[in-house]
Amino acid sequence: MLVTMTREPERVERAPASLEDLLTAVAAGDRAAFAELYDRTAPRVLGLIKRLLIDHSQSEEVAQEVFLEIWQTAARYQPNKGAAVTWMLTMAHRRAVDRVRSSQSSRDRDVRIGIRDFEPGFDQVSESVEVSVEHERVSKALGRLTELQRQAVKLAYYGGLSHSEIAAKLSIPIGTVKTRLRDGMIRLRDELGVVP
């Protein structure tokens, strides 16, 4: 009896390619390398994006954009500047942050537009008439002050001068300025019918 031994072909266990090698192959347009790169890194990329965006559908959309960018820019990866996974996750982080900012900006804009749309209409003619009438009332009330009171009030409230500046301009003591202002304001209050 003759026994022949046949040998089974040896299985050669190939070490999986490094991510750096896969990126190099992707840069050359190797679709199989891209598929393997995707299979090995997609969970980490999507996980990072989900932590930032929370919304699952937006996270998947951004992950898709990231892998498209990886396919298009793999040639820019420089192994001497960092690990491939770091390069990819940085890209994913940047894209996710951009999406968060864009969403926030969009929400802010919608809120501003919504607030503007719900603001009551502003009647400029009515406002203009009210201001004009009020201005006329104040002018008439100022006309009823003594000349000295009117000067002090106008310099203080229309000219924006301090008590000491009014005193210097009118060549009178500060105490006199304060008295004229106080008396003038009391008289204006009475003329305008303002309740103290």
TrEMBL record:
Domain RNA polymerase sigma factor 70 region 4 type span(s) in chain numbering: 136-187
Lineage, uppermost ranks: Bacteria, Bacillati, Actinomycetota, Actinomycetes, Micrococcales
Boundaries of every RNA polymerase sigma-70 region domain copy: 37-104
Xref: Pfam families: Sigma70_r2 (PF04542), Sigma70_r4_2 (PF08281)
NCBIfam families according to UniProt: PRK09646.1, sigma70-ECF
InterPro entries according to UniProt: RNA_pol_sigma-70-like, RNA_pol_sigma-70_dom, RNA_pol_sigma70_r2, RNA_pol_sigma70_r4_t2, RNA_pol_sigma_r2, RNA_pol_sigma_r3/r4-like, WH-like_DNA-bd_sf
CDD domains in UniProt: Sigma70_r4
Keyword field: Sigma factor, Transcription, Transcription regulation
Name under which the protein is recorded: RNA polymerase sigma factor SigK
Organism domain of life: Bacteria
Gene: rpoE_2
Molecular function (Gene Ontology), one example: sigma factor activity
Family, as annotated: Belongs to the sigma-70 factor family. ECF subfamily.
Gene Ontology annotations of biological process type: DNA-templated transcription initiation
